[in-house]
Amino acid sequence: MLEKKMEGINTDKVIEEFEALTKDAGMVQRETLKKILEENGSAEYLLNSGLNGRTDPESFKSCVPLVTHKDLEAYIYRIADGDPSPILTGKPIPDMSLSSGTTQGRRKLVPFNDELMENTLQIYRTSFAFRNREFPLEKGKSLQFVYSSKPWKTKGGLGAGTATTNLFRNSKYKNGMKAIQFQCCSPDEVIFGPDFHQSLYCHLLCGLLFREEIQFVFSTFAHSIVLAFRTFEQVWEELCNDIRDGELSSRVTAPSVRMAMSKLLKPSPELADLIYKKCSGLSNWYGLIPELFPNAKYIYGIMTGSMEPYLKKLRHYAGELPLMSADYGSSEGWVAANVNPKLPPELATFAVLPNIGYFEFIPLKNNAECLYMEPKPVGLTEVKIGEDYEIIITTFAGLYRYRLGDVVRVMGFHNSTPELKFVCRRNLILSINIDKNTEKDLQLSVEEAGKLLAEEKLEIVDFSSLVDVSTDPGHYVIFLEISGEPSEEVLRECCNCLDRSFVDAGYVGSRKVKAIGPLELRVVWRGTFQKILEHYLGLGTVVSQFKTPRCVGPMNSKVQQILCNNVAKTYFSTAF
């Protein structure tokens, strides 16, 4: 990290600025849209829209259509291929972010520029100010399970990498992170290491070497934190040996990583004995994180949506340490900050920052009304508490009226800006007939089955699903990886429980009249979901960006193949 000193931020001032910004969010939104359209008025996309220089919301909505990534691909690839003309933005786009591809089975390129970097820092400063007010940090370091993808150049010479890689390589980001006490205990060589497994091992080792200084534990997603400490369970004795001898394990072969770690490692038998004693004294690894890092204040990362299933295991490792969900955004851009850090992840809400983009919301109140005509989007300050919406973003990086694909619920308002709860991805759905089950419905069903396994002292390691229409009628298939060997009776009951726990009226009705076949439970071998992770790492995804695909569609044939080739046992429901 850069050695340049930077003053810590004035958290009271940041909170004051946020309060002022959200007093009249409607006005700030109009000003933000005006700024976006003025800065990018020379872009081909906007010139072709017929706006003719107008910057008011009404003209914008009447001239510029709602779009998905597919609609913009041709423009984005022209930029990536080196077309120098202003296509989506007035100023040239310097970099491209690459999405993980775990949602749709295909990675997307999205524009990344200095304005998005500024948005990132503003979001981070805002949430840090509120977080630090409730959980003040002392001077120290953080244990961050972060990884950078290998950067590459597009055909036109633009830098390309994951959104997090674009951040990590930016000097503004590094300085900004110092200002909010977000300094990683691992050297850059570990973050930018060529092999994820070696980097993870070294992150754990650095955490132990600086154990007294660690103020919090972080990764982009909760999954990465759980994966890290599952790995710790396997390698802890080897880590102790490294510390005792002052010599790095031969499992780390990357020369740059070995060189960086050699500067930190010195023989320390006392520390090795202390860690060995602490690990040996734990009951089933409960409270591992505070035991290893006695001065840690909390665990931080995205813990909503598809990350919620990992919270039970994360709480087991965390003991009494608070879990705190990080801010709400995507590879395409940021939306909102967590300004209520005391709320548990399941109840986390995110206050929209009205100056980082222009936001619209498609009401999802009554599907029957939406069969023939989608409701008109409403503005940021026009949303209603308790209602669900699909979110639309307009950014400073050339995305105009872009459908993010997320469903959010308005939980309240902070001054005049809404506080949102992430509900699910709109397009991740199990559907055969008139049934519609979202990722959240699947999660709730799996949680119910998990309760039966918990009675046997077992847990669900991970899960996924697909719709099988090769049978007549079609049926749902749920894949579970389980931590041990449940009895046949328990697995049969799990299968029935999964089927009964989908309470969508269309599903229940279709099951009763046999328009949907019995749910199929496929129990997969241990390590199956690790193979899925390895598949995505092979495609260039970084582990801190990885999300297990919850509903595997036909486009995701390789993941389907991995799941179907690793089935240990199969059961069909008799619930209906």
Automatic annotation (TrEMBL):
Cellular component terms (Gene Ontology): cytoplasm
Domain named GH3 middle: residues: 351-425
Gene Ontology MF terms: acid-amino acid ligase activity
Span of domain GH3 C-terminal: 440-552
InterPro entries with a match to the protein in the record: GH3, GH3_C, GH3_M
Highest taxon in the source lineage: Eukaryota
Pfam families attached to this UniProt entry: GH3, GH3_C, GH3_M
Assigned keywords, A-Z: Ligase
Family under the similarity heading: Belongs to the IAA-amido conjugating enzyme family.
The name this protein goes by in its record: Auxin-responsive GH3 family protein
Organism: Populus tomentosa (Chinese white poplar)
